[in-house]
Amino acid sequence: MSDNNTQETKPLFQRLSQTIVPTHYDLTIRPCLDKFRFSGDVNIHLKVKEPTSSIVLYAADLEVDNAKVKSASNDELHGKIELDQEGERITVNFDHKLEKGEYELALNFAGEINNRMRGFYRNKYTTPDGSEARFGASTQFEPADCRRAFPCWDEPNFKATFDITLVTQKNLCAISNMPIKSENELTDDKEWKVTKFDRTPIMSTYLVAYVVGEYDYVETKDSNGVSMRVYTLVGKKEHGQFALDTAAKILPFYADYFNIKYPIAKADQIAISDFAMGAMENWGLITYRETALLIDPKFSSMDTRQRVAIVVAHELAHQWFGNLVTMDWWTDLWLNEGFATWIEYLAVDKCFPEFDIWTQFVADTFARFLVPDALKSSHPIEVPIGHPAEIDEIFDAISYSKGSSVIRMLHDYIGDDAFRKGLHNYLTEYSYKNTVTENLWSHLAKASNKPVNEVMSSWTLQM
């Protein structure tokens, strides 16, 4: 406490300026699992909208060096890196101003393959005979941990494309969002390989994913020709068959329901041995806790199959609602999750009518929020988010279960035909862009000729 009794306050969280916008990342990652370390380099294509002598972006738990920018005319400037550890940002300062135009920012970086199940982290598993413990590595970037893997504009409305390259030991699988473009031996070390992946669609940083480890897989194609795999630890691939069959039914259902083609050539799912979430909807490479994806075909119950089908349906829904069209900021994350939690039941009911899944919605979803919503500590479904760290504190059964329940109510209120039409128009207009909740309400109102915004705001903005 200071002598004059004034209290220090933390500076308010500020989002990154929109005066510098990334459009593309060329990213190379070199994981060394023996040392739990990785190194990498990234070239970020930028649009500078106003003259500036500094570039601010996110980086956390990384050693970043050798910053330089290159202009469209190939002029090169070296920058000095200033670290803001508390703000998880770096500022690259230049002696001369960058004028309006296009640039490439090049950075080298290194970090730990951590054990905290966020960023780029390690996961432990044993060989099939149980005799030896080994490690792989995987990513978990939502909401704001991409910055722990490489320097980036780690906010959902800074969308860009990504060319990802993984340099790994030859005996390991290297997997990412997109199909493999090329795989070659490392020129100066034949025990290592270089795996390059196709360019991603325009997407948010939290949806980037890559995994390195020893994996088996089962594979198929859905009725629209999308390649699908379920990756498991070696010796468990038959445990992924039900999830694969489920995804092959549900992905075409969504493509038909939204009337929008799935935009990537593959839709992979992978079971990770150490995983903090239930699952994560990374575009083209959905990661799961093992118990949320894998089923022993000899001992599975109906309840287990239903649970896996629901989780798979939830994550596949996000491939459109969340990935193709993304919330502008985390305040609207409730809509992403509430929508997926509602439509997972619709999809499973259509693809597995024998489950009679809607009879479980009230007990498993609707009833979950009734007790917390009756307490003084309750809150509206939609709560403003400042710092991304607030998400875990705010998002609970009210946000997810009550959110999905009001989406179900809205669907019944305007009818399925109007709902599908409005949803299609919304997803079409905002493909590869960012939105706020009111954008969806507007399209559903136009399709149904009903006062959707007025009705829904009364449910989402008050207790």
UniProtKB/TrEMBL annotation:
Q: Which InterPro entries match?
A: Aminopeptidase_N-like_N, Aminopeptidase_N-like_N_sf, M1_APN-typ, Peptidase_M1, Peptidase_M1_aminopeptidases, Peptidase_M1_dom, Peptidase_M4/M1_CTD_sf
Which residues belong to any copy of the Peptidase M1 membrane alanine aminopeptidase domain? 242-459
Q: Which residues form the Aminopeptidase N-like N-terminal domain?
A: 21-207
Report the coiled-coil segments: none
Q: Which UniProt keywords apply?
A: Aminopeptidase, Hydrolase, Metal-binding, Metalloprotease, Protease, Zinc
Which residues bind Zn(2+) per the record? 314, 318, 337
What is annotated as the active site?
Answer: 315
UniProt-listed GO biological process terms: peptide catabolic process; proteolysis
Q: Which GO terms describe its cellular component?
A: cytoplasm; extracellular space; membrane
- Residue numbers for the site described as Transition state stabilizer? 400
Cofactor names: Zn(2+)
Cofactor: binding details: Binds 1 zinc ion per subunit.
Q: Which GO terms describe its molecular function?
A: metalloaminopeptidase activity; peptide binding; zinc ion binding
To which protein family does this belong? Belongs to the peptidase M1 family.
Listed name of the protein: Aminopeptidase N
